[in-house]
Amino acid sequence: MKLRNIIAIGTLAAVSMVGLVSCDSAANKASRNLSTAADNFEVPRRITVVNGITGDAVMIVEGYCSLGNNDTAWRMSLTCKTEDGEFIKNFLDKSDNTFVMTEQLASVSVSTFHYRTVFRPQSVIPDIDLQGSSTELLENQNTDG
Which member of 1, 8, 39, 79 has the lowest number of beta carbons within 10 Å of its beta carbon? Predict the structure, then answer.
């Protein structure tokens, strides 16, 4: 009898956890998955910086761009992938009279039922750059012993 109660309680707990995890709306799941896709340079965007006083576009960037990584209230970064597979990072210093508008230029198919998780095993091993001079190393030897 005790084993049956333990199984029943475990099953109830598992069902409750699944219910809590799945409470998010379809729109929230789609929005998060679109952000994940954009951060993986899969969403074409047009980012326009507009002068709020004159109405003029100060800057327009089009391409596969990710918006803001650790931005502040007054600074926004754009990281964009070029056609050659290279990357460019731009910084926008915001002010009281400018605003940024981001448009998605094409639809992207994302799930409204499952969150997308990206795992990159290559990122576990760091890319190490060594800087130095063999001449400097040989010339500045300790002569004290």
Answer: 1
Q: Strand (E) positions, the chain?
A: 44-51, 57-67, 75-81, 87-93, 98-104
Contact 97, 53 (CB under 8 A): yes
Q: Is pTM beyond 0.90 here?
A: no
Pairwise CA distance, residues 84 & 40, whole Å = 16
Run of H or E residues at 96: none
- What are the counts of helices (DSSP H) followed by strands (DSSP E) for the chain? 3, 5
SS3 content of the chain, % helix, strand, coil (to 5): 30, 30, 40
Q: Can you give the residue ranges of every domain in the chain?
A: 1-39, 41-107
* Distance of alpha carbon 65 from the chain centroid: 10
pLDDT of the chain, 145 residues: tens digit per residue:
566 666 666 666 655 555 555 578 889 999 999 999 999 999 999 999 999 999 999 999 999 999 987 788 888 899 999 999 999 999 988 888 888 888 889 988 888 888 888 888 888 888 888 888 777 777 776 666 5
Cα 13 from Cα 32, distance rounded (Å) = 27
